[in-house]
Amino acid sequence: MVHESGAFTLEVGNFPTHHVRFASSTSYQDGTLAIDREALLAAIAEPQVFATIEMHLTHPGESCRIVHVLDAVQPMVKIQGRSTVYPGHFGAAIAAGEGRNHRLHGLALLVCAQFPEPTSGALSPHEAIVDMSGPAAPYCAFSDTVNVVLVCHAAPGITNAEFDVALQRVKLKAAVYLAQATATLTAPVLQQYVLSPADAALPRVVYINQLHQQGLMAQTFLYGKHIQGLEPTILHPNEMIDGALVNGNYRQPGRAITYAHTDNYVVREMYQRHGVDVNFLGVVIGRGWQETQFLKERQGWMMARVARLLGAQVAIIAADVGGTGGNNTIDFMQTVQACERMGMRTVAIIQEAGNVDGSDPTLVDHVPEADALVSVGGIGWRTPAAPAVERVLGGTTVRPDITAEPQDACGPLAVECWYGAIWKRSEMGLAAVDA
Q: Quick one: what percent of the chain has pLDDT higher than 70?
């Protein structure tokens, strides 16, 4: 469905999900998702890459810990429309953002794995942990959702690159399979997303989303292709809701999440306020982690240029729902500076990098124009230690500190940053949470 104005119209049917269980067939009824485990595993099997795939279920409040988490995906399926959800990963990369989707609201699909080949250096996957209960749970993304957990084990001789490509297929196929249980049902909650014409007097706002791209294990996919070499471009916010962006970044545990792209907190807030106190123009995306200072400056000006061509007066700038970090902050600040110098007021949502006692700088880089900053907490901020748990999914040992020896995954843990912590803080109202 497309309005005469040309704006995409997307309807999303939400099916609240409070409980999940295994059964002889897959179905949804009254907030409960029943899953045929064998049918789902058969639908996603890739025996040439994965020797085995385990499937587990967990609910908020359980004494359960999930380890080696790589990504989390929103279970959804396209019911009407020319495209698919997660376009580019299923068939042709047809422009997304219209039609009707069904999604299981309150349920997440988590994929856990350890890569088969040794890694070292900046592009190594870092440990990522979710506690479903206890003092650490409020700091973990998906501690408050019903979770289907896939644990993937590599077949002999598989490379990390082959393993990663197959992981992308498996997690998205599983997410669609789960939501397909609602295909013939009437959604209890139906939301419509359309950028209708707004009062010309309202401030024109654009969301600038800096995405992560360094290489294997630290990348973002746009319509099924990694964004290496991507020049800043425009997305309709509905394309994000439809799954045009998929995460492939396994670096810091506070990293980006596919679920957080499809349920992006800035997009959600802008839609709620569109036509009320802002005129939401759309999304500008570009690649962070540029290799040279010249490219960082160029990227900033290109991002600002696209936003200005849209007619933006205000730019809300965030970095990949997983926060900034390292030299990624330099790219970020170059965009803030370029937007301001091109006449746009900017509000930057940023992750701090300081330590608990304040002796380290809180920002890796800063420009004078960045005078409206919203903090979503710091990498080195104290989080509560977690007690031992009764059940662990994903593995038997963990290494919360990449330089430390593995330890028992069931036992007490002191973790600097839990899985998806930056997004979790943002979801709590763009407020830093300290213990």
A: 93
The beta strand positions in 3-68, using DSSP E, are 9-16, 19-22, 27-29, 32-35, 50-58, 64-66
In this structure, is residue 224 part of a structural domain?
yes
* pLDDT, the chain, mean: 91
Domain span including residue 58: 9-427
Nearest to 319 by CA among 334, 304, 329: 329
Is the pLDDT at 326 greater than 80, yes or no?
no
Instruction: Give pLDDT tens digits for 48-74.
Output: 999 999 999 999 999 999 999 999 999
Mean pLDDT of all residues in 141-170:
97
Q: What is the domain count for the chain?
A: 1
Q: Read off the pLDDT band of 356 (50, 70, 90).
A: low
How many other C-beta atoms can be found within 10 angstroms of the C-beta atom of residue 304?
28
What are 180's two structure tokens? 């397909």
Place of tokens 């039609």: 99
DSSP labels, 108-122: EEEEEE--SS---ST
φ, ψ for residue 328, nearest 5 deg: -60, -30
CA distances from 356 to 75, 255, 373, 382, 435 (A): 37, 20, 19, 6, 11
In a domain, 3, yes or no: no
Q: Evaluate whether residue 435 is within a structural domain.
A: no
**When comparing pLDDT for 411 and 327, which is higher?**
411
Give DSSP secondary structure letters for 78-99. EEESSS-SSBTTBSS----S-E
Q: Which two tokens stand for residue 315?
A: 């730019």
Q: Residue 200 falls within a domain, yes or no? A: yes
3-state secondary structure of 222: strand
Distances (CA, A) of 261 to 102, 142, 336, 423: 16, 14, 21, 10
Reduced to 3 states, what is the DSSP secondary structure of residue 160? helix
Is pLDDT of 3 > 70? no
Positive or negative: CA dihedral 194, 200, 202, 203: positive
C-beta neighbour count of 415 within 10 angstroms: 22
Q: pTM of the predicted model, to two decimals?
A: 0.94
